[in-house]
Amino acid sequence: MLELVIFDLDGLLVNSEEIYGKGWKIGLEKVGASIDNETLENMIGNGTSTNTKIILDIVKSMEKVNEVRKIREKFYFDCVENIKPKPDIYLKTLEKMNVKSNNAIALEDSITGVKSAIAAKIKVALVNTKKMDFDIDSEYFLGKFNDLEEVYKKILKDKLN
For 14-43, how does the pLDDT look when each residue is reduced to its tens digit (9 = 90+)? Predict the structure, then answer.
């Protein structure tokens, strides 16, 4: 029985990517570097390791990468120690809501988020209009949808009624 629908916030319900990008820009400026908008856009939805490589290419040292991250955290942070694609955020949500993973569905807008939900053994729908290359073979992956209305009509309508 479906008891809980978990919505990813960033990019799915709220465009907080601007705040995230501003944090990167300010952090880089503080260490004497800069980043263009196209690179920032390409960072959206990536995991920590991918974005670390991108920032490392710009600042050329892990010490500076860590300094930039500390500055960026003032603008954007998570309430768990391990961020996506680790399952921590979903496991914490299930615990706080006292719901088992098989009674929840997650709605995500990134492959990183989908992997996080799958790692927590939660069924997950990818809601994203961007062209994306991905290969997800999991019993928990419900598919890719263009918008929340499509998810509701194809997945949630019968489960919520």
Answer: 777 777 788 899 999 999 999 999 999 888
**What does the alpha-carbon distance between residue 122 and residue 107 come to, in Å, rounded to a whole number?**
10
Please give the C-alpha separations between residue 92 and each of 36, 82, 101, in angstroms, as whole numbers: 35, 11, 11
**CATH for the stretch 4-13+80-160:** 3.40.50.1000
pLDDT digits (tens, 9 = 90+) for 90-120: 999 999 999 999 999 999 998 999 999 999 9
Residue the block writes with tokens 């073979």: 137
Domain residue ranges of the chain, discontinuous segments joined by +: 4-13+80-160, 17-72
Tokens of 35: 């980043």
